[in-house]
Amino acid sequence: MSAAPRRAAEAAGAASAPLAGGTVLLLADALGGVVKIPGDVVDYMALTGLLLACAGLAGVLRAARRVRPSGLAAAGGVLAGAATALAGAVPAVPVFATGLMAAGLLASPLLAVPRARAARTPGTAAWGQAAALAGTAAAAWLATSRSADPGTALVVAGVLAAVLAALLAAGTVGEEDPPVRPVARGALRDVRPALPAHLSAGWIVGASLMGGLHLLTFRWDLLGADAVRYLAWALLPALVLVVLGRRAAGAAQTIPWLLLAGAAAAPLMATAPGPESLAAGFAVALAAACLATAALDAAVLRPLPESRLLAAAGLTGAAAVTGGMAGFGCAAALRGALDEGTALTLTALPPVLGALLALRVRGPEPPPGPFLHVRGLSVPRGKVPLRGAGLTVAVGETVALSGPGASTLLAALAGRTPCRGRVRLDGADVTALDAGLRMRLGLCHLAGPDPHVPDGRPVAEGLAAHARTLGHADPEGAAHAVLEVFPALHGLGHHHARSLTDPQRTLLSLAEALLTRPRLLLVDGIAAGPCAGAVHAVLRRLAAAGTTVLVTVPAAAEVHALAHRGYAVGRDRVTEIPVPAPDEARRPAAARSTGGSAQ
């Protein structure tokens, strides 16, 4: 199924429960008159239904192990809508109460499944919140237009909610949910830092609805449908604000600011000079709460493994519902002891605390960037000039370079030849650093056929001097240790460097690299020949320890034996060449690269 129908189906599912539940809450007093019970009792029934929805999440997790979660949410939504319609059609207390309780319990999957599905795709969490807000707006307009016939309004809301839930089922026909058994173990640990923020977002909605509607009723004498009409008008700009501000829901850093915006709406509503400005406060509070919830879902739910995603969505949804009921109840309790404006202003304090606690919420870690990133590298002079070369290499990766420009590229990376372009190591630009500074900082080291030890100096003494330059605490001990790595150099510490054979000089150059302990090791012209086996063994050990290795090799056999990837370096192009990997176990996870072509 294409993305657009699937998202439309998910939006329908997200709007289903707010449509039915919002109609009950907004018509509580009118429904109480039809059923012959106080309106407060209808409120208690609706809130009890919400508690049952939270309690039913444990059963949802068990059922989701045998039934597709999307199908479970659709079936629960259809039955919940039918129960809501039944409560409106039969105005008898037992039927009405049973219908509301059953609707709440059956709607349990809608607390978790739509948000869990939206969290799988970046950018969709805000659209889900916009759909929920649209469902609430539909409930407000329905309550306004059918306030004289609340029973019929409830029937219509239930039928529409059932149809929306059925659209969720129809939109996911033929789509396979991931075959993962949902588990609750570890879900609480995953979402614990975000729970105060979810509670705060729910609190903002509950407190602003209760306080704002009572201000409309008692400050400006707007009764029944007149007060709800202002809420209905406020929900439309709130919906627009969520759509326009959906990018703010993509980063965890925005969560505290969104919660503070929702908290600031309460005193603005309390001091509003008229119902229109109070409605604007409604819009800000609801939009801020919805965007904060979407940002929390993007930061907390998206990085989770599929097995814990549904449980985490359920826990955070239950937290938001609990916060909404707490805000609703607190606003009502304060209203009994204080005037309407003061009561609503005081409800801003818990979201402020929630905003401070939301600073602990961290979004998913960005994927690590490449360790070595070469862009537009040009070497105008030299045996083989280069133009616009580019390369990207990951930590611990061994890359083999061949072709006429391979040695020139290594010399430029080591800082031994002037170049233009950009060379970044672990995010730091080192283009302007000379070769000596790069080596002393342990950034990179070029190992070639000619070691740094002067020809007229004993090998051990020259290595100790090199170690002393690099800041080793025990230069002589470090020199002895690296000589022990190579059996061919063992016992030759007192020999002058000029007396060594070419293979021994190759190993001495690599011994100097071991003293440097570079993060990037550049190996030029010493990976083949009589000592290739010893060189390859050392390079593999270094790569396994996290050193990135670039090595020039003359033949394909060495490429296949040593490297994870291979490139041919020409004068104006760096081209990747196939390198079979017979030993996949040694291929680092971070070795997927996007580099390799000329920039």
TrEMBL record:
Entries under Pfam families matching the protein: ABC_tran
Signal peptide from the UniProt entry: none
Transmembrane regions listed in the UniProt entry: 12-32, 44-64, 71-89, 95-113, 125-144, 150-173, 194-215, 227-245, 257-274, 280-300, 312-335
Gene Ontology molecular functions: ATP binding
InterPro entries: ABC_transporter-like_ATP-bd, BCAA_Transport_ATP-bd_LivF, MFS_trans_sf, P-loop_NTPase
Disordered: region residues: 578-599
Every ABC transporter domain range: 387-524
UniProt keywords, alphabetically: Amino-acid transport, ATP-binding, Membrane, Nucleotide-binding, Transmembrane, Transmembrane helix, Transport
Family from the record: Belongs to the ABC transporter superfamily.
PANTHER family listed in its UniProt record: HIGH-AFFINITY BRANCHED-CHAIN AMINO ACID TRANSPORT ATP-BINDING PROTEIN LIVF (PTHR43820:SF4)
This protein's name: ATP-binding cassette domain-containing protein
